[in-house]
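Protocol step 4 of 5: obtain the predicted structure for the target chain.
Materials: sequence only (see below). No template structures provided, no constraints applied. The aim of this step is simply to have a reference model before the mutagenesis design in step 5. Sequence pasted as it appears in the construct record:
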Amino acid sequence: MRCQTCQYTCHQHCVPAVNLNCKSIQDDGAAVVSPVAPPSAASPLPGHHARQDSAPPPSAFQPRGRLEPSRSLGQITARPGSAARLLPGEGGADTENEAFQGFVKVTMNLIRPITMELGARPPSIYELLTREHIVEENTQHVAFYMPRDTHKSLHITSDTTTKEVVTSLLKKFHILDHPRKFAMYDQEFNDKNKLVRLRRLNDKDFPLRAILDWDPERIRNYRLVLQENETGEIV
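Step 4 output (structure tokens):
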């Protein structure tokens, strides 16, 4: 709508809310507005320039279908009354060739004392004045008994071997003892918390794959334990 006196233009729905001070030739002094044709595409409004580029097709704004997530790593699912199994992906790959990752919690039950590195101590004034400071000579080592049932969680893959898990545990605790002094076991307890099965994991075994053989309904009755190498194998 456009005022016949001052040529003020507004939308027809906004006329009741507009109060103009200009006066028309009418006696009541009210402003008179008249309808005006909306601008066409061929005649743009003043101060505006028509866009030269063509608008994208309507299909460009339509939501695309949601992509299916990749299942190359497989899916781990718990079946009632059986152990957790690894289902192959859509490609039909063998379960043993599927790669996956997850967390394992290892319980450290060590009877003998272990040697831990506390880091290099700062050099004394005497060492600075008499000879060159050597970090290796000032590294502090301490031997102590680790508390039983010490837990540590590690993020590993299905291709991580037992030897690599043991080495990672020793590095996280700054333990200087050789990894061959330790061994990892798979333990199973009954409902009365009594040990009913003990299986040693070889260096080339995969702990994360071994967990798939656990009963999901009795998952709290299983655990991975790091202990001393009782067989005394030295390689």
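Step 4 remarks: The domain at 100-110+146-228 is CATH 3.10.20.90 (Ubiquitin-like (UB roll)). The mean pLDDT is 71.
Proceed to step 5.
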